[in-house]
Amino acid sequence: MSNEITATILSIGDELLIGQTINTNAGWMGGQLAQIGIRVRRVLTIGDDRDEILDALDKADTDVLLITGGLGPTKDDITKQVLCQFFDTRLVRHPHIEARIAEFFRSLGRAPLEVNLAQADLPEACTVVPNERGTASGMWFERSLGADRKRVFVGMPGVPYEMHTMMERHVLPELQRVFAPPTIVHRTILTTGLGESHLAQRIAAWEDSLAEDGIKLAYLPSPGIVKLRLSTYANNDPVGARARVGRKAEQLYRLVPELIYGEGEDRLEQVVGRLLKERGQTLSLAESCTGGYVSHLITSVPGSSAYFTGGVVSYANAVKMEELGIPSDMLELNGAVSRPVVEQMAQGVRQALRTDWSMAFSGVAGPDGGTPEKPVGTVWIAVAGPSGVRSVQGFFPGTRDLVIQRSALAGLNLLRKELIA
Q1: Across the strands, what pairs with 66?
Q2: How many C-beta neighbours within 10 Å does residue 106 have?
Q3: Please, what is the Cα angle at 91 between 88 and 94, to 5 degrees?
Q4: Is residue 270 domain-resident?
Q5: How confident is the model over 35-58, as pLDDT tens digits?
Q6: Rounded Cα distance, 26 and 380, in Å
Q7: Tell me: the pLDDT tens digits for 308-357?
Q8: Are the CB atoms for 349 and 356 separated by under 8 Å?
Q9: Which residues sit opposite 360 in a β-bridge?
Q10: 377: domain CATH number?
Q11: Calpha distance 65→8 (Å, rounded)
Q12: What is the DSSP string of 193-234?
């Protein structure tokens, strides 16, 4: 579109380049910009180097340049000084920001150092962007490009929770006011149980039909999950755009209902929790290869105490026998990674903790311990409930962490399908 608004995300910090810190900011910012109709054209990561920062600023060719990092109180934080050089301005102290910084340190029972108070020194040419969750203020600059066009530069702290709040409360609303980007309607449908390529094959005809309604589809895969994001420009008719997207979403639900577990920011453990809570039912877990990871996912949901009773991490066979009632001859005959054992694990923990439902996991997470019959990634999962027990065997190749993550998702999805059956 001719009125498309574009953005560059510039992440600054040596720690990002050497892998000491994972750059989660760029992905989050890109998602937020997409929601308001601004397209990210590129993401750049550079070190705390004056010349590299100046070069990135000078070569900016998008409507918006969002900068994170380099605003701390130490000598390696040079972003403010470089921005002053680029915009031919100087640092000036803001007394009200200085007072707020001093009060922040007093609330911690500490006296601020001069390097802390110096965070109130900001480029004279910028509009200050408040930071309600930290001491490093943001900076908003505008540069005229002629013919009523402008380029906006925004410097923000690299601390994620500080940047998130600054973006949500100040930067995103102001970008919408300044640029009035075209409204985009998004709807993200979450699937699990089928990889990206096989899913694409299943829905190929449906995907081909999207163009006639002006809708684009993006596949967003992660371990065990494929997100399907439907997007279209509203073209001054957001109600109609949402209706178009809604019709295509309904078609997708009819096409692959068994694969869809939620939308937007839903997590599978949240979906399962809601189903249990709606039914007034309880859950227990018996975990071997997942080592308590599924319990962690369940209890990461606020209010999970309403339905999650507890679990047993039965890593050793002795625990399987003593706590879950698995006969020793069953283990000897079938091995720990088997249908009979995992089903007995699920039934044993359900009986011991007196819950409506239970899940059990037993597998070979690796990197060692695999055999030709049971290679690394082989996992048995069982769900026991009011109508009996159901078990499935999965094969989840990859690193140890990936085996555990994919096993957990598969188990949660198996329980979800049992709950809605």
Answers
A1: 9, 154
A2: 11
A3: 140
A4: no
A5: 899 999 999 999 999 999 999 999
A6: 37
A7: 999 999 999 999 999 999 999 999 999 999 999 999 999 999 999 999 99
A8: no
A9: 286, 382
A10: 3.90.950.20
A11: 5
A12: SS-HHHHHHHTHHHHHGGGGGT-EEEEEEETTEEEEEEEEE-
pLDDT exceeds cutoff 90 at 383: yes
Can you state the angle between helices 317-324 and 339-353, rounded to 10 degrees?
40
Residue where a domain stops, chosen among 221, 240, 263: 263
pLDDT tens digits, one per residue of 20-40: 999 999 999 999 999 899 999
Is residue 14 domain-resident? Answer: yes
Examine the domain organization and report whether 23 and 167 are in the same domain.
yes
Residue 43 inside a domain? The answer is yes
- Per the structure, the count of domains in the chain is 3
What CATH code is carried by the domain that includes residue 115? 3.40.980.10
Which residue, 142, 135, 164, is CA-closest to 24?
A: 164
- Structural domain of 67: 5-179
Count CA atoms closer than 13 A to 327's CA, side-chain side.
5
Task: List beta partners, residue 395.
Answer: 378
Shared domain check, 355 and 237: no
Amino acid at 272: V
189, two tokens: 């449908």
In a domain, 268, yes or no: no
- For the purposes of burial, counting CB atoms within 10 Å of the CB of 6, is it exposed (0-12), middle (13-18) or buried (19 or more)? middle
Res. 147 pLDDT band, cuts 50 70 90:
confident
Residue 1 confidence (pLDDT): 42
Kindly state whether residues 414 and 400 are assigned to the same domain: yes
∠ at Cα 223 (302, 25), nearest 5°? 70
pTM above 0.85, yes or no: no
